Amino acid sequence: TVIGVIKDFYESSYEVPTPLAFITDGYEYFRMNSSAVSFKYEEGTWTACKKSIEEWMDKEYKNVSFSLQNMEEVYEKTLKSENSLFILLSFVAFVCIVISVFGVFSLVTLTCEQRRKEIGIRKVNGAKSKDILLMFLNEYLVLLIIAAVMAFSISYFIMSSWIESFVLQTKISWWIYAVIFTFTLLILIISVWGRVWKAAKQNPAEIIKTE
To answer: CB neighbours of 201 closer than 8 A, spacing ≥ 6?
Structure first.
C-alpha cells in the first residue's frame, strides 16, 4: 500500500536524485531484506532522538550492531569544500575592498595635487567649486562604469559556470550587482568630495603663484 509521495531526496548537491522508496513493513522485513531504516525527527531534537534510539536498541536488541547517521550532517560534509571556499573568498573580498578604497582615495589625492594649477585657473575664470567637483565626478564615473562592465561580465560568467555543477541552482539576481555598483559609487563620491572640494576651496591666486 502506497502511503504517500515525498519530494526528491537529495543525498548530494552534485547528483540528481534517483528513484527511492521507503518501506515500512515492520522490523522483520527490515531484518530480512534491508540494511537501513530512515526516520524523520523534529528540528533541534537530533541529540535527544539519537540517545533515545540507542537506549531502546541496547534494551531490546543487545546483539544487533547498528549505527546512526544524520543525513543533514552527511549532506553538510559534501559541502565542506564549498564552505571553506566561501570563507576564503569572503576574506579575499574584504581585503580587496579595503585595498580598493585606499586605491581610489590615493588616486584622487594624487590627481588633485597634479591638477592644482588647473583647478586654480578654472576658479580664476569663474568656475565654482561645485562645477569643479562635478567635473572630477564625471571623469571618475566613466572609469567606474567601464570597470563595472568588465568586472560584472567576468564574474557572471565564472559564477554561472560554477553554479551549473550543482543539481539545485540559484539565479544570480541583478540587484547584487546594483548593490555593489552603488557601494563603489558611494566610496568614489566620498573620496572625490573630500579631496577635490578641499582643493577647490583654496585661494586660486596662491595656487597659481606657488605653481
So the answer is: 129
